[in-house]
Amino acid sequence: MTLQLNRYIFKQFATRYVTVALALTLIVWVVQAVNLTDNLVGSSDSVVEFMGLISFTLPRVLTFIIAPAMLISVVMQLVSMQQSHEYFALAANGISPTQILKPLLVLVLLMTIIQALIAFYGAPQALKNLRLRSVHAASGALSTGFPANSFADITPTLTIFVGESVGTNSWRRIMIQDRSNGAHITYFARKGTVSERDNTSYFLLENGTVHSTQEGQEADIVSFGEYVLPFTLPTPELRLNRNHLMIHELFNPSAYGITNPNSIARMQTRGWLLLSNLANPLIFVLISFLVVTGKELSRHGATRYILITALFGIVFQLVNSTLNNANTPYFSMLWTFLWVAVLTAFVFARNRIRTPTLTPALKEGAL
Fold first, then answer.
1. CB 351 within 8 A of CB 286
2. Based on the domain organization, do 194 and 343 belong to the same domain?
3. For 212, how many CA atoms within 13 A lie in the half-sphere containing its CB?
4. Which of 73, 186, 305, 319 is buried most, with the most CB atoms less than 10 Å from its CB?
5. pLDDT band at 279; cut points 50, 70, 90
6. Between the CA atoms of 278, 241, 38 and 147, what dihedral angle is there, to the nearest 10 degrees?
7. How far is CA 367 from CA 86, 98, 340, in A?
8. Pair (56, 94) in one structural domain
9. Across the chain, what does the average pLDDT equal?
């Protein structure tokens, strides 16, 4: 009977948790996608590619959702059980609050393992892939995305003007000025097309002239029917930070080419903070459980339970975020440990009371 009851309680809480987590993930992910739209929508060739790029943010979104979703889903399910008399029926049959907590702890363990895998490996790898794809897409857009009737500075010494667009990567009225190597070379063409081969970009110019001017020499003007002008685009700088490193890389960054002492300290701090955050689902579950399963229960106190639970959760997360932003992992871990210790002590104290105190009306309704 106990095993069947545990399975039933676990199923109820797990179903509620999945629903809440999916809703929160969708909301936060859409916000993230909107923030990335300006940077990526012009760099992707299709909607499918754009959706593929923003999907790399999903693992990191999950790392922020797992713990808060646990708090919300637990308090919602416990309040729902109270309002439907289910919780009081269990209490009237001698089921203590601690017995209800046991299946919850199994759910917490599963979600903590999932959070560890995502935070330690999934999210860093996804963000790194997003950064690499974004840089590659930006580089590709630079070579083919010249806006019509405008100038574009490709490099500090190379300026391009393109006129009317007449097709894919093709324009009329081309002007290219090359100021490298102490010379001033200007290309004029009636039409120009950009192509790429072997990672090198080419401008195929048609029906134009080349004006070459060097210091102390007369200008040379050469006409051409077709002229192939190779040009090298600047490679966008790839900057990786501690959000792109997996857990083993954070604790040993020097093995991966990072030698700056300050950078090493920040990355190791990040590793300790990730470990500390693994306790967040447990803390949020204990907060929800202790607040809702108080000694004096009432079917009409749902709003009060939710507000009190949210208040405790906000206080914990606010201080924890402040310590995280201050790069003080040891204080953050101490803060987390204190919450786990205090909440666990309250749970053991609650365990001495087999059943909660019920009002006569609630007892009659439960029975």
1. no
2. no
3. 8
4. 73
5. very high
6. -160
7. 10, 21, 35
8. yes
9. 79
Angle value at C-alpha 317, between 325 and 29, nearest 5 degrees: 85
Which tens digit of pLDDT belongs to each residue from 201-210? 788 899 999 9
Q: Give the residues across from 188 on adjacent strands.
A: 175, 209
Residues paired with residue 159 on neighbouring β-strands, in sequence order? 153, 177
Domain boundary among 202, 231, 260: 231
What's the burial of 299, exposed, middle or buried (CB within 10 Å: 0-12/13-18/19+)? middle
Based on the fold, state whether residues 125 and 272 are members of the same structural domain: yes
Domain that holds residue 58: 2-140+242-366
Does 282 score more than 90 pLDDT? yes
Q: Is 208 exposed, middle or buried (0-12, 13-18, 19+ CB in 10 A)?
A: buried
> Is pLDDT at 183 greater than 50 in this prediction?
yes
pLDDT in tens, 310-324: 888 889 988 888 887
Output the six-digit token pair for 284. Answer: 């949020």
Last residue of a domain, one of 231, 256, 279: 231
Please indicate, yes or no, if residue 66 is contained in any of the structural domains: yes
Q: Answer yes or no: is 236 within a domain.
A: no
CA 301 to chain centre: 36
User: Are residues 109 and 12 both part of a single domain?
Assistant: yes
CA 90 from centroid of its chain's CA atoms: 40
Say whether both 50 and 188 belong to one domain. no
Q: Output the six-digit token pair for 75.
A: 């308090």
* Same domain as 125, residue 103: yes
Q: Are 135 and 128 in contact (CB under 8 A)?
A: no
Is residue 367 predicted with pLDDT exceeding 50? no
Alpha helices, H only, the chain: 2-40, 47-54, 58-83, 86-92, 97-117, 123-144, 247-251, 261-276, 280-292, 302-325, 329-351, 360-366
For 322, residues 6+ apart whose C-beta sits below 8 A from its C-beta are: none
Q: In terms of domains, do 27 and 74 share one?
A: yes
